[in-house]
Amino acid sequence: MDPLTTFSHVHCLALCAGLVTLITVVSLLRLALVAGSLIWHRQISQTLISILTGILGVGGGLLLLHVLSWWVVGVVMVPTYILPGVVGLYWGFAWGCDQAKQA
Fold first, then answer.
1. Residue 98 is part of which domain span?
2. pLDDT band for position 54 (cuts 50, 70, 90)
3. What is the pTM of this model?
4. Shortest CA distance to 94 belongs to which of 58, 69, 40, 68?
5. Which residues neighbour 58 within 8 Å (Cβ) at sequence distance 6 or greater?
6. In Å, what is the CA distance from 56 to each residue of 31, 67, 82?
7. Contact 48, 33 (CB under 8 A)
8. Per-residue pLDDT tens for 73-94?
9. Residues 41-58: what's their mean pLDDT?
10. Domain for residue 87, yes or no?
11. Number of domains the chain is built from
12. How many helices (H) and strands (E) does the chain have?
């Protein structure tokens, strides 16, 4: 097996816990910033939003690669379906924030 796949499988709990927490916190922060700017009509830093979007994209992508590494070896369980759904949900929040900000 590939060393990255082995690492992913050995440290599964830490990867899932860390990446899910990361993308949850970043998504909520991004959502709060955009909602606050819409409510109080204040300008938010595009650089900050871009950084948060990048962190969300990389974290979500790593989580998807981690789940894919389990699918490759034939592990099909409930968490391997829930985690991609979580990533999709948070990426959807990011897309929705962008749409709300542009409106």
1. 24-102
2. very high
3. 0.86
4. 58
5. none
6. 12, 16, 17
7. yes
8. 888 899 899 999 999 999 988 8
9. 87
10. yes
11. 1
12. 4, 0
